[in-house]
Amino acid sequence: MNRKIYTLKCIGICLLMLPLGRSLYAQGAVFEWARKMGGNSTVAGIFSEEEQGNAIAVDKAGNVYTTGTFRETADFDPGAATLNLTSAGDRDIFVSKLDAAGTLVWALRLGGSGNDEGLGITTDTAGNVYITGKFEDTVDFDPGPGTSNLVSMGAHDIFITKLDPGGAHIWTKQIGGDDEQLANAIAVDKAGNVYTTGWITRTTPATSGSADFDPGPGVYTLTSAAYNNAFISKLDANGDFVWAKQIVATNSEGYALTLSDGYVYSAGGFSGTADMDPSPGGTYTFNTLIADEYILKLDTAGNFVWARQIGGDNLSVLSFCFANAIAIDAQENVYTSGPYFGDPDFDPDPVTNYNLPATGISEGFLSKLDSAGHFVWAKVTSGNGAINFGYSVATDAAGNVYAAGEFSETTNFYTGLPGDTLKALGGKDIFISKLSPAGSLLWLKGIGGTDNDQGHAITTDQSGNIYTTGYFKTTVDFDPGPGTTSLTAAGSSDIFVHKMRCADTNSSYLPVTACSFTFNGHTYTTSGIYVEKLPNSNGCDSTVTIDLHVDVAAPVITVNGFTLGTLLPYTAYQWWRNGAAIPGATAATYAVTLNGDYSVAVVNAAGCSGTSAVYKVTNVTGIEDLPALAAQVRTYPNPATATVFVQAPVKTNLLLTDIRGRVLRDLPAADTLSLEGLADGIYLLQIRTAEGLLIRTEKLVKQAQ
């Protein structure tokens, strides 16, 4: 069984066999690939999952990471090659990295002579990988040639391991005591701080139920008040202790954790009485008869913000409810998923109620609260005699919600409508579902064979692809659509990694001519091809290719006798002298009557504005000699392939620009011009006197040899 399921899950549910269906609203997602990892290990019995994926993460490059447990020898290369890993004891931890196409990048084993398990995994922006879970006895947490041995102090201790993108060991930290400790979930913030949640245990009076949460030389002890007590802990980027908080309760268990920029959200379950405010002297008390879900919000300093109870503060109601998973969207709406039975109240407000009575042995729920912890909606999976379980939840950029888990028999998903029903093929099947931000069912997938199969974890990437992991038995078709992709477990159970992509993606081409262009919050000021990705309402990326031509207005002044003009026509003009606009000088030409520094500001047909370089006039009477001088200038060859020569009766300065006015060559006192390195095309050559007076502007053509 899933080793993340402990005491609270067995208070009301110790049967745990759940299945699934096929595909509804199939256009919403398309099968991409499925991969299996596992070996020939077999153990008879109801809980015979020898290999299973417990947690999954994806980085910004689309690489897929999983962790879980395996036994004996298992092949972790899902391709034609073989990468066998062999457990050192009962069960060992595996960590696997596949690329976006599902090809093995690396896989490694961590474990000793006992029972060790990876329960949580995440990555940071640099591609480093973080794993947490539990271990016993002595374990070397360096999968490479080095050694990083840790020895458990009790039945099981918590490990937190950081690997680089290549799977090399960076550090491992231990949290332990004289009884049972485990961490179920892990998250990393932008600064590299590491957060975990789980619980510490006092199983007998002979143990203290204490655990030291400072993995360094210091000591920071939390002690379980009764049986299990949930914790949330924070280490810095080097694995050094920052803080640890405890939910003091008759029994409390932390299953899930997620982060925003400023807050830590955790979820799990509790029984009896629980104080949800972990600050010294603070109290925020919940009570329940059997077991209820809790959602706790702290700031990143560990200070209490709010807590919510799902199930009901009613000691006369026989109900059972706890959260297996938690996720938030961009607005910090909070989504949780898990199992329940009885008649729990999903609205945490003590005044209002939202009850969804269970019709089967166990139902699965998916609920949404806003960022302040107020109820938004709740949905359930239900079926007479069915066992349904929500194990994981994720969101996408559009605020859609994804859930994965298991179901049995015939189960309705979220709506109560006959069409939104799946029938399990075996004892229990895998379900994957997608709901809108408003809670409407968008699509539903069922995957399973003739035995028991289970979806443990789900995540999404920035493009709206969906990834799941868990275990399967016998032969399973992992394509929930019309195709077939069957995988067969080699032993009692194998690990699967599954990817679906969005079906309703689209692409468009957008040619733009403008001075600059703003799209999707990005402003472009230079010509080029730009690709923008936009999530649509279904969380799938639409691709827009922008072909941008920046039409910069860069006027070049021409001279004709006493008259200044421009080389190209424009829609508006303003002539300037000595840095001041000349009143009324808004025509395409301007007759010069005074010496000075002249320029012209223009607007082209695209609405882009620009200003010319200064044309200096030092002797008004001398300007009329320039046409005669221009007639004596010879430029050759034109067209040219490599070099242009300028023949003139005076010394010349040469200025070469492209047709938009960008300067390519600026040569004082020159009569030759090299065209080496320039593309074939049309250029403008300004020929000036040594004093800077423009003699003429020549259109110059470069062509291939």
Descriptive notes:
Mean pLDDT is 88; it is low at 1-22. A seven-stranded antiparallel β-sheet has the order 15-16-19-20-21-22-23. It is mainly beta and 705 residues long. The chain folds into three domains: 7-502, TolB, C-terminal domain (Neuraminidase), CATH 2.120.10; 507-550, no CATH class; 632-705, Immunoglobulin-like, CATH 2.60.40. A hairpin with a 5-residue loop joins strand 43 and strand 44 (541-550). The longest helix has 6 residues, at 7-12. Helices cover 2% and strands 52% of the residues.
- Beta percentage is over 45%
Overall mean pLDDT stands at 88
In CATH terms, what is the fold-level topology of the largest domain?
Answer: Neuraminidase
Q: What are the low-pLDDT stretches, counting only 5+ consecutive residues below 50?
A: 1-22
- The number of helical segments is 2
Structural class: mainly beta
> If strands are numbered along the chain, what order do they take across the biggest sheet?
15-16-19-20-21-22-23
Report the major sheet.
7 strands, antiparallel
Helix content range: under 10%
Categorize the overall geometry. elongated
Overall number of structural domains: 3
In the CATH hierarchy, what is the superfamily of the largest domain? TolB, C-terminal domain
**What is the level 1 CATH name of the largest domain?**
Mainly Beta
| Cα distance spanning the termini | 75 Å
Note the quaternary state here.
single chain
Count every beta strand, where a strand is a DSSP E run of 2 or more residues.
59
Query: What is the correct CATH architecture of the largest domain?
Result: 6 Propeller
Radius of gyration in whole Å, from Cα? Answer: 35 Å
